[in-house]
Amino acid sequence: MNRYGVVTFDGPAASGKSSVAQRVAQVVDLPVVSSGLLYRAATLVAERASIDVDDAAAVMAVLAGHHVDLDPAPGGNRVTIDGDEVTEALHTDEVDALVSAVARHDAVRDWVGERLRSIRPPFVIDGRDMGSVVFPDATHKFYLTASPEVRALRRVGERAADLERVAAAIRRRDALDAKQLRPASDAVRIDTDALSLDEVVTVVLDRLRGTPTVGSVGRDG
Ligand code: C5P
Fold first, then answer.
1. Is the CB of residue 101 less than 8 Å from the CB of residue 54?
2. How many whole angstroms separate alpha carbon 191 and alpha carbon 170?
3. Model pLDDT, residue 217
4. Mean pLDDT of the chain
5. Structural domains of the chain sorted by starting position, each given as residue range(s) with its CATH number in brackets
6. Which residues line ligand 1 (CB under 6 A)?
7. Ligand 1 pocket, mutate which of 35, 38, 86, 105 (most atoms under 8 A from CB)
8. From ligand 1's centre to the CA of 212, what distance in Å?
């Protein structure tokens, strides 16, 4: 029996939360769930239906007509829409550009929250408001931050694109995501600007294993 319940990692786009969540999950032998995939899947459904993503009722109506499923498989999360695997189609520039508008709607957030709460713990999960809104009783909560410049550099490493364009897209997404980016007051905050992925993972594992570290880690920690 694993001694962890729900372990949450929240933070802005490209703050490293999903890489850290994956590595930590592997070490503590838990499945990892990427909550952003459900927002991306909702966006893909809306995009395919060519509806106005600012219209919450239209988004919910089109979502009601499809069965969206997230499988936290050990080899990586798989998302299906009506049984068809769409995981690869969720990380396109088109979905990136529309997802914040879809994620702003309270009804969409409830739709995602419901799906996430139906996954049986224990698991590690990353998102924007996992520790504050969806899983307020999580056993361990982490909030990762990094400057827009550092996050843009990390993203450029993942996708072939030029730095300035990526930095601008990240700033735009930060502004659009501001409402949903809600750090839990009891989360351990880690500023990852000056830390490698391994170093962040070590800080997190120390915390999980009960080794005392300061409440805020990184540049100001
Ligand atoms: O984490 P990822 O970049 O895949 O998330 C895509 C988008 O989904 C975010 O930019 C944000 O708009 C939304 N999101 C959210 N709440 C979450 C996870 C993602 O609003 N818990």
1. yes
2. 17
3. 53
4. 90
5. 1-30+122-208 (3.40.50.300), 37-120 (3.40.50.300)
6. 13, 35-36, 39-40, 99-100, 103, 127-130, 173, 177, 180
7. 35
8. 30
> Is the Cβ–Cβ distance between 59 and 39 less than 8 Å?
no
What percent of the chain stands above pLDDT 90?
72
Cβ contacts of 21 within 8 Å, gap of 6 or more = 7, 9, 32, 34, 124, 125, 126
pLDDT greater at residue 84 or residue 74: 84
Q: How many angstroms does the Cα of residue 133 sit away from the middle of ligand 1?
A: 14
Q: What is the DSSP string of 87-115?
A: GGGGSSHHHHHHHHHHHT-HHHHHHHHHH
How far apart are the two ends of the chain, measured CA to CA in Å?
Answer: 34
Nearest to 125 by CA among 215, 3, 5: 5
Q: Strand, helix or coil at 152?
A: helix
- Type of residue numbered 44: L
Q: What mean pLDDT comes out for the span 122-142? A: 96
